[in-house]
Design goal:
CATH superfamily of chain B: P-loop containing nucleotide triphosphate hydrolases
Strand order of the largest sheet of chain B: 6-7-8-3-9
Distance between the termini of chain A: 56 Å
CATH topology of chain B: Rossmann fold
Shape of chain B: globular
Largest sheet of chain B: 5 strands, parallel
Order of helices and strands of chain B: EEEHEEEHHHEHHEE
Helix content of chain B: 25-40%
Shape of chain A: elongated
Oligomer: heterodimer
Number of strands of chain A: 0
Strand content of chain B: 25-35%
Number of domains of chain B: 1
Radius of gyration of chain B: 17 Å
Number of helices of chain A: 8
Number of strands of chain B: 9
Number of helices of chain B: 6
Structural class of chain A: mainly alpha
Radius of gyration of chain A: 20 Å
């Protein structure tokens, strides 16, 4: 019965093993999302994540897109096509997803870790146990699923704002042909790119959600949970994105 | 009447909480009360030990409900959402009807909006919220943790009685330590 505090502290593998175990346990409990209470919590979390990250994402994305585009077009002023290609690889495939995930971690991951630590360490955890609601199924699972779904949504939103805003502003600032730039950019996008982006953002969301839920349930102090979630989440995201980049580009020549 | 809980010390049978009964479990210390409830609700094993007493669960832990003198609510949620957690599988429209019926029949939390956050409720209101949750869940046995402490037994007797009126064939079990005024109709006192 899912009413006890999860024994996620694994002495042998430390936090990494514990996080993997928690993610697996949550995956086994996915059918609980059919219940109204769990579904309502998931939707509430998704709304909170959007409110916390949506506006920030758009402003930062616009700024990033403009800076990246401006730098590239200034360096490759004579070759618009090359500049757009570099923009597609650097911003769309690598930098954009990483920054969206970072935004999710710092705005949502840390706050959720602190919230869960406050609940798990206090009387509210008892209240949940009394009602037969497991900490993993009611607290951790919605956080994981919300982070995965919202990471994909935020990444898509971030990319659209960064790329379109960057191209528009660069075209205006450097008096470049907008239609040609968008045409080159559209030509760079393939189905494989979209699949890669989707998988990357989903995995990033899973990392953020897992780290936040694990630290929230394992730590007693909310401040400590938030700090650990930020630190471990950052390392995990860097490792994940590095690994995916290596896998994607190891066979690319020149 | 089937047994819900059995207690033994050194192989000697101390008492049994049965279906439909009203009983009182008297522990020696307050910490034993809490330890007993934590282990019972944690659902790790069908038997556990508290202060050398062998406590044996004869039914699933999910069939127990708890009304505690330290009521617990999820402060970040509204009244409706807290009540909804008692029956997480219930569809939203049916839930609203059940909540309305429960509040009408019991008269508890009268005049408080369902959208109000529970962190603003006082102690008595939180207790009533917990009882409404138990009312909706309808467990086989209602455990009342230290409700008879400090002479406030008479003020709170009405709450378990409401449960008893609605579910006369379900058990009510008071978990206490030290002396306490016994509520009327109490059939069994088990000294632990």
């Amino acid at each position: 019965m899912d009413t006890q505090l999860p024994e996620v502290r694994n002495a042998w593998f430390g936090d990494f093993g514990g996080s993997c175990v928690l993610a697996w346990q949550c995956a086994l409990r996915l059918p609980r999302l059919r219940q109204r209470a769990h579904r309502e919590r998931l939707l509430q979390l998704m709304l909170e994540i959007w409110r916390a990250g949506g506006v920030d994402a758009s402003l930062r994305a616009l700024a990033l897109g403009t800076l990246a585009s401006a730098a590239l077009f200034q360096m490759l002023a004579s070759n618009t096509e090359a500049a757009v290609r570099v923009l597609a690889v650097s911003l769309l495939r690598e930098l954009g997803p990483f920054l969206a995930a970072l935004l999710l971690l710092l705005r949502t991951g840390t706050s959720q870790a602190a919230t869960l630590a406050g609940i798990a360490g206090g009387n509210e955890a008892r209240s949940l146990r009394l009602l037969g609601l497991g900490l993993r199924s009611y607290l951790a699972l919605p956080v994981l699923v919300a982070c995965v779904l919202m990471a994909m949504l935020l990444t898509a939103y971030f990319e659209v704002m960064a790329v379109s805003g960057g191209l528009l502003l660069s075209g205006w600032l450097f008096d470049l042909p907008l239609r040609e730039m968008f045409h080159h950019f559209a030509g760079q996008l393939t189905l494989a790119d979209l699949v890669y982006l989707g998988a990357k953002s989903a995995l990033s969301g899973l990392v953020v959600g897992t780290v936040a839920a694990y630290q929230g349930l394992a730590q007693r102090e909310p401040a400590q949970a938030a700090a650990q979630a930020a630190l471990q989440g950052l390392f995990a995201l860097v490792a994940l994105h590095g690994l995916l980049a290596w896998l994607a580009y190891r066979n690319v020549e020149g | 009447m089937y047994p819900l809980l059995e207690f033994y010390r050194d192989g000697q049978h101390l008492g049994t909480v049965r279906q439909g009964s009203q009983s009182l479990l008297r522990f020696r210390h307050a910490a034993h009360c809490r330890d007993f409830l934590e282990q019972l609700l944690a659902a790790r094993r069908t038997s556990f030990h508290v202060d050398g007493i062998d406590c044996r669960l004869k039914v699933a832990p999910g069939l127990f409900g708890l009304l505690s003198a330290t009521p617990t609510v999820l402060g970040g949620l509204s009244l409706r959402d807290n009540l909804g957690l008692a029956v997480p599988q219930e569809p939203a429209d049916l839930l609203d009807a059940r909540i309305a019926h429960a509040r009408t029949v019991t008269g508890l939390l009268a005049g408080i909006e369902l959208a109000r956050r529970t962190d603003s409720l006082d102690w008595r209101q939180r207790l009533e919220l917990n009882l409404l949750q138990v009312w909706l869940r309808a467990p086989d046995c209602l455990l009342c943790e230290r409700l008879l402490d400090g002479g406030r037994g008479s003020a709170l007797e009405g709450l378990p009685a409401l449960f008893r009126q609605r579910y006369p064939l379900r058990a009510v079990c008071y978990v206490q330590h030290g002396p306490a005024r016994l509520p009327p109709g109490l059939a069994t006192v088990i000294e632990l």
